[in-house]
Amino acid sequence: MALLDFSRLRSAFEGELYFDDSTLHTAQRAVYATDASVYQEMPVAVALPKTVEDIRALIDFAKANSVTLIPRAAGTSLAGQVVGKGIVVDISKHFRKIIEVNAEQKWVRVQPGVIRDDLNKHLAPYGLLFGPETSTASRAMIGGMIGNNSCGLHSITWGATRDHLLEVKVLLSDGSEAVFSEQTIADFTKEIREKQIKGQRLQSILAGMFGLISNPIDQDLIKKQFPKPTVTRRNSGYALDALVRNFEKGNINLCNLIAGSEGTLCFVTEAKIALVDGPPAAVGVVCVHTNSLAEALHANRVAMGYDPKASELVDKYIMDFTKKHNVYSQNRFFMQGDPAAMLMVEFWGIAKEEVEQKAAALIEQLKAKNLGYAYPLLFGDDANKAWDIRKAGLGLIRNLPGDTQPVNLIEDCAVAVEDLPAYIEELEVLLEKHGLHASYYAHAGAGELHVEPMINLKTSEGKQQFRDVLTDTAVLVKKYNGALSGEHGDGRLRGEFIPFMMGEEVYEMFRQVKRIWDPDGVFNANKIVDTPPMNEFLRYGQDKPSPQIDTVFDFSRQEGILRLAEKCSGSGDCRKTELTGGTMCPSYMATRSERDTTRARANILRQYLTPETAANTSQEIATSMWIW
Questions:
Q1: Handedness of CA 471, 477, 483, 486 (dihedral sign)
Q2: What is the DSSP track for 418-472?
Q3: Model pTM?
Q4: What is the CATH number of domain 282-397?
Q5: Which SUPFAM superfamilies has this protein been placed in (predicted)?
Q6: Which end of the chain has fewer CB atoms surrounding its CB within 10 Å, N or C?
Q7: Longest Cα pair distance anywhere in the chain, in angstroms?
Q8: Where are the domains of the chain?
């Protein structure tokens, strides 16, 4: 890429812009070189826009200079969605306004940098909340949740972000503003005619999308090639299936497409989202202790017949990491014996007695089927402590010693609930064939377990395993007509496998969608479609000798300072605010700047100490560490 001239953009830009090779700018770009995934690539620039006009200026600059914009919120994406050689546009610092609450109609209008849990604290006096809840809800932002179509622990009750997205205000790839919401087909086609004389990108989008989803041949192909209807978690490619379902009801809602599009189609500046009533007074969790993973999954099928509000799994791998943990060891008070897996089934009721009746009915059925050996029922703070163990899943298993670590790879595959026991049984055999073991946890009630195989990505063998395991798993998921991505998205991890999963014709439709919305690649290029190979641009080089680093402090218990820095997965716990996250990183709380997070410090330290990056950035980063 030719050297970009940012001088004119800089003179009119109200926010922060980092683009040159100076110490500070290089360090800022290095901080944004990765997210919560295994990928790493130095961006050409980082922008923290302050106004919508700043974003429009970035779009004009990107189009004129053939560079892509990478929208970023909290940076907790797991498939490399916000990693790339473009301009990272971080909206988390300045786009944090809750604009309007309509309690009577149950909706709220927000900017994309509003944090999910902070929003719900604001909504608490109204008795309302935004339902979808990722395990990162204390820092995940509405913009990122739209981009990934996030759902989370209670998805069987509250659905995904797409189900709540009523309206979005966006900037298109020509810099023009548009607002999308649900319309009748008649109103939609009328708008196409009215916009025709304007010649802006909007008319091309409306006409192009109508032509795509109104074609009966394409509709049939989409229905045939997408996951089967009982797979509720489906986040692969662009959501043409959601558009077709709505079209058959007489409506078109392009919000359905924008949710899950990973910032590749437009830039969201405001969102109107539907709210739900908070849970009733009584909420209880049955913690079903089982002797095997398979037993827990069969218990899950039974539990789903009792209309639970959540049904989540935690395996022995995760539970074992809580035993000596300074916080989570105290949360084990309810555990009996040494379960191989635990199914957490939540029930709601007007009164505690109603929850107890539902729980008793489930427990009686489980005992009759010889599923489980202990069934404690928890309420209130006790239940919250148990849920904390489940939510801490990936963070806990990151404490594994050595270079073999859990990787986000096949953690997002989803099948129908009735297929989950058979799918996991075959997956265990598949991983054994590759000589790997894994942790299994999360959304059993939605047909999606987060399966984290343990792979050493610092070796050539591990890098190849990374590809081979996903290749073989894709075949297995397709056998069950499931989704390769249930909630974490394709990004640059799974995009390469979409043609296999859905067929070349549907994949070409996805490419057509990208061309309709963004023919110049202004927004987040090479995500979902036309992605680079999935095992390139990894955080780690392969087969490099581990550097021996002398330190004043003793890090031997953590296997050295480098391995300690590598423990940061990038999940962004250090971005919690004082509103809902409790005491965390005080410097970030004061500045709201990524560079002041613990995550940023770990990333900059890791890049400086890692041999393969040292030749490119070590001097600049080393100097910047003195500044920080």
A1: negative
A2: GGHHHHHHHHHHHHHHTT--EEEEE-GGGT--EEEEEE-TTSHHHHHHHHHHHHH
A3: 0.95
A4: 3.30.70.2190
A5: FAD-binding/transporter-associated domain-like, FAD-linked oxidases, C-terminal domain
A6: N
A7: 73
A8: 282-397
